[in-house]
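Entry for the shared binder. Reason: the reviewer on the internal report wants the predicted structure included alongside the sequence.
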Amino acid sequence: MAECFLHVRLGLLLQPITIIGGGLTGLSLAIALRKNGIPVILHEAGIYPRHRVCGEFISGILQKTLNALGIADLFHDCRYHTDFTWFSANQLLRQSLLPTPALGISRYVLDDRLQKLATDLGVEIKTRSRQKPDPGKAGLIWTAGRKPVKGEWLGLKAHLRDLDTSQHLEMHNGPFGYLGIAPIEDGLSNVCGLFKIDRTISQTHQNLLVAYLSKNGNTHLAKKFKTATWRENSFTAVAGFELGRQIPTPGILSLGDSYAIIPPYTGNGMTMAFQSAEIALPHLLTFSRNQTPWSTTCAKIEKKIHEKFHTRLTASKFLHPFLLQPKARTFLKHLPLRPILKLVR
C-alpha cells in the first residue's frame, strides 16, 4: 500500500495513517484504526516476538480502554496481581493490597498477540524498517519509544524461573536504583531494574544485573538470581535515556514513550501506552475522514495528552529521587497507598 493511497469506503476518501514504532501504543492504535476501517501502515525497527525492557505488569488500566482499542480479548489468560511487597536493600518494609488488580503478561507474548491481530485486520506491518522523522507530514505518528540522550539511567530485564519469591509483585530499592519482580506466564517471573549507570561495573549479560543488585544493597536477591534458571535470550538492557517528558520534535505527533517515560516504580508505563492510543483514536478518525485538518488534529491530541498525564508525570518526577534516599524507608513503610497511586496513575 503506497503511503499516499486514498482508500475508498462508503463513498469517503480516507486518509491513511502511518505509525512509526510497533510497541504497545503503535500496535494498539493500529488495531483500533483498522477496526474503524482506516488504512494503516506500521513500521517497526525490530521483529516479533522479542523481549523488551519493561516491568510487564499493567496497573490502573480500565476495561473501557481495552474495549475501546479492541484488544480486551488478548488478556484472557494474564496473571492478576492483588498485592505487593516492598523491600529496601534486604529489609522488608511493607506488604499491601493493591486498590485494583494489576495484569501480568510478558511483552514477548503481548506484542506478538497484538501484531498478529493487527495483521489479521489488514494493518500493513513492515518489520526491520527504521524510519526518520518527517516533520509536518500529515497522518504520520511517532511511537518509536525513548528518544536517545546521554541519560544517567540503565534499564535491565530478564525472565527467571525458580526464583523462590512470593509469587506476587515485589519492589526492591536502594541508593542507586530499584528492581521489580512480576510473575508472568509459564511459571516465569519478569525481573526489571532501573539503576544509575556505574561505569566501574564491568560484568556483562546476567552477571551485570547481579552486580547492580549487589551494589544497590539487594544482596539477598542477588544470591537468589545466581541460583535461579534464566530464560534463554530474555536478558535485555537499554541505556541512554531520561525519565519524564521526552524532548519534542517540532512537527511530529509523538505518543507513548516517545511523549514521556514515567518512572517504572509507578507501574503505569504500559497503561499510559494504551491510554495514549485511546486518546488519539477519535481525533485520528476525524482526520482520516477528512473532517479535521492535520494541524488541528495534532493540537487537539497533544492538548488531551497533556491534560491526562501532566499530574502523574509531575508527581512521579518529584517522588522518584526521594525513593533512593535512606529516609525513604520510613516513608515507604507508612505512606498511605491510595492517595499516592492517584497521583502517579
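Summary line for the report: The longest strand covers residues 91-104.
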